[in-house]
Specification:
The chain is of the alpha+beta class and 246 residues long. It is built from 4 helices and 13 strands. A hairpin with a 5-residue loop joins β9 and β10.
Length: 246
């Protein structure tokens, strides 16, 4: 009976597993990334209000050291533009803020493919739109879509738990300066954590193998390594199963 109930639950939950899609809010992104969330807000640099500082292109936790002063960026993500990058300190919504800007498109890439990302874009041309192009772990375009660039910050996020995300490009056909206020990432895409039967594939046979191990209380079904066999192991397997093999 335990295997049957688990199988039913697996079928229902796997049918509703998240596919590649936009993330509607920062709160939703927090749920996806959970305790692995990393937020790069570009703060920690001292500039007078309204000041602009050229920065290395590409910009990352290594190249930022070329600036010669203490300003740390989160490792694992790279920012690049066809022209040049700069950091601007100004006032947004009544509060001092720091953001990354470029006269052309900005490409953001990951050292390791990600499950999801989010960012806040700043625009001063209401009714125009940023175009975002999202690429999977094999650098194949997943989706291209537009988001408004109204005055103020605008959140946009995306998740791809089964294909992984290697990079995103951001373009704007109208405004002279593209602005990224912050960037959120942090949950690495794992190639194939649910290949329970170790055959190099990712399919129903892994579900069947998991059910067998779970019924026998085999350690291979103890997905959270707590020595028990319960819903938390089923949940761990489900989360792993949403991530596809390469």
């Amino acid at each position: 009976m335990k295997s049957l109930s688990v199988l039913i639950g697996l079928g229902m939950l796997l049918a509703s597993s998240a596919a590649a899609q936009q993330v509607s809010s920062f709160a939703a992104l927090e749920v996806i990334l959970d305790d692995q969330i990393v937020i790069e807000d570009f703060e920690g640099i001292s500039l007078h209000s309204g000041g602009t500082l050229p920065v290395p292109n590409p910009l990352n936790s290594i190249t930022v050291q070329k600036l010669g002063f203490n300003w740390d960026l989160e490792p694992g993500v790279n920012y690049e533009s066809p022209s040049a990058l700069s950091i601007h300190s100004g006032f947004l919504g009544g509060e001092e803020d720091v953001y990354l800007q470029s006269a052309e498109s900005v490409e953001i890439s990951f050292d390791a493919p990600q499950v999801a990302f989010g960012l806040h874009l700043i625009g001063f041309s209401a009714g125009n739109a940023y175009t975002l192009s999202v690429y999977d772990r094999n650098d194949v375009l997943i989706e291209e879509f537009d988001k408004p660039s109204d005055i103020g910050g605008y959140f946009v996020g995306y998740q791809s738990p089964t294909r992984g995300i290697s990079r995103v490009t951001i373009t704007h056909p109208i405004i002279s300066t593209l602005k990224v206020n912050n960037f959120t990432f942090g949950r690495d895409f794992i190639s194939c954590p649910a290949d329970v039967n170790n055959d190099g594939a990712h399919n129903f046979f892994d579900v069947s193998a998991f059910l067998g191990f779970f019924a026998q209380e085999d350690d291979r079904a103890d997905f959270n390594d707590d020595g028990q066999f319960n819903f938390f192991d089923v949940s761990g397997f489900l989360n792993a199963f949403t991530i596809a093999c390469p």
